[in-house]
Design brief:
Blueprint (H helix, E strand, L loop, with lengths): L1 H24 L28 H26 L3 E3 L4 H7 L9 H29 L6 H21 L21 H17 L4 H23 L15 H13 L6 E5 L10 H7 L3 E3 L1 H4 L11 H12 L6 E6 H14 L3 H12 L15 H12 L6 H7 L28 H6 L1 H4 L1 H5 L1
Antiparallel strand pairs: 1-3, 2-4
Helix pairs in contact: 2-3, 2-4, 2-5, 2-9, 4-5, 5-6, 5-7, 6-7, 7-8, 7-12, 8-12, 12-13, 12-14, 13-14
């Protein structure tokens, strides 16, 4: 609204000035083209072919990607038990009850353009910076490394959340790839991270971010394969991915803090309507889920300190912008713990799960505990990966259901369709003929 109001006032002022000039000049040519204004802030796309703009373009990829996270994190959280709907908009209620397959939902619909923007921008900047690098004109190779990393986050987020996707190019539409082919988005993300790591030489923080996130993506791919095709809970939900385990150990070796995190500040330009902190802390359409605000540690029986700290930090950010935790040492230990449990290596499992618990001075888990290894793993993933967009797949693969999920006669629901992810929404269906009429599009 502010943007339109500013333009309205500017146009009105110009009209008044032109009217006054016309009167003063008594019929002179006067002002022409009231809207013929040149904005000095506009930059032609051709200007991006300047290698000196590489760092700024990498920053733009980061900004677009974090704006995407601001947009998708609310519908994702409300569809799980991480956020509870308490507001007035029925579309949030649809997500709350698990009607994820409704492609008309206004909030998944509103989030999708930011997803497409982040994906397209990331790929285009990578292509441009790769060209600079190949010609020897890229002064800072870490700008390309960061672009690979940020775009990998976009690709993995799409694969985690969306049932399908179309790789359109500006006004040129593309067909949907299909659920079975969405696994290739993880492969693209891993490929980008493979290219990013050598370019991060000398920057331990960037090396850690790339290595840790690559571990997370490799495990995410294996988890996705557990819930695909949708419709059934896997008999064996545990993942043991050798590549994820190797990267997790490498990431932990890069840092010595014990509780390191790869975090990104949200883009402050994010509009309030897509900002997760505005929707929860400002507009109050949803709140931190009761399942998390009442979560107790299964061994002590007292309030879980991890989820309590995450919730407190989230609220302290206010309603404008906050920080996304992309991955962490905690997740690395949990990846290694799960891999060990999948092979019944309880010694390694105990070491890794207690490495997480010790960060909050919680008592160790032991095989003699009344809490099973599976239960403590699920609890620690729930608490430590809160609001990191891991929860939906975990609910599905461990056979858990959110109490608000209900059967919807109009749409497939998460309650009776494990593995259900978000469909291509209406905004893309209306704009892309390849979605609504693939046969005609291919001709």
């Amino acid at each position: 609204m502010r943007y339109h109001q500013t333009n309205w006032r500017s146009s009105l002022a110009r009209a008044v000035l032109c009217a006054g000039a016309s009167i003063a000049l008594l019929g002179d040519t006067g002002c022409k083209g009231l809207l013929d204004v040149k904005n000095p802030n506009n930059i032609a796309e051709e200007s991006l072919n300047n290698p000196q703009a590489a760092d700024q373009q990498a920053n733009g990829v980061e900004a677009s990607m974090t704006r995407m996270l601001s947009a998708v994190s609310v519908p994702y959280g409300v569809a799980t038990d991480e956020l509870d709907w308490i507001g007035s908009r029925d579309a949030w209620f649809d997500l709350e009850k698990g009607a994820i397959s409704n492609y008309l939902n206004e909030f998944t619909d509103g989030a999708f353009p930011y997803v497409g923007e982040a994906r397209y921008l990331g790929d285009q900047v990578i292509k441009r910076l790769e060209g600079f690098n190949a010609s020897g004109a890229l002064a800072n190779k870490q700008s390309l490394s960061r672009s690979y990393l940020y775009t990998a986050i976009t690709y993995a987020t799409i694969a985690d959340m969306w049932d399908d996707f179309a790789f359109s190019n500006k006004t040129t539409p593309a067909p949907a790839v299909g659920r079975a082919n969405m696994v290739k988005l993880y492969d693209t993300a891993i490929g980008y991270l493979d290219k990013a790591l050598p370019l991060a030489s000398g920057n331990t923080d960037l090396q850690y971010a790339i290595t840790a996130y690559r571990a997370r993506v490799k495990q995410g791919k294996a988890i996705w394969q557990k819930i695909t095709p949708e419709g059934q809970t896997p008999a064996n939900p545990l993942v043991n991915d050798a590549g994820a385990n190797t990267d997790a150990r490498a990431a932990l070796a890069l840092k010595s803090g014990g509780d390191d995190k790869f975090r990104l500040t949200s883009n402050v330009e994010a509009q309030p309507g897509i900002n997760i902190w505005f929707e929860v802390n400002g507009r109050n359409e949803s709140k931190i889920g009761t399942a998390f605000t009442t979560l107790n540690d299964p061994i002590t029986g007292t309030r879980d300190p991890v989820s309590a700290a995450i919730a407190a930090e989230f609220k302290a950010f206010g309603s404008q912008a906050g920080v996304f935790t992309i991955t962490s040492d905690r997740e690395m230990h949990l990846i290694l713990a799960e891999g060990a449990l999948a092979t019944n290596d309880l010694v390694t499992f105990q070491t890794e799960i207690n490495a997480v618990r010790s960060l909050d001075a919680l008592p160790d888990w032991t095989p003699a505990s009344t809490v099973t290894a599976s239960d403590i793993l699920q609890h620690e993933r729930m608490a430590n990966l809160m609001l990191m967009r891991r929860r939906l797949a975990d609910l599905y693969r461990f056979g858990k259901k959110v109490k608000e999920w209900t059967t919807d006669p109009n749409f497939k629901s998460a309650v009776n369709d494990p593995g259900l992810l978000f469909p291509i929404p209406n905004i893309e269906r209306q704009a892309n003929p390849c979605i609504t009429n693939p046969t005609a599009c291919s001709q």
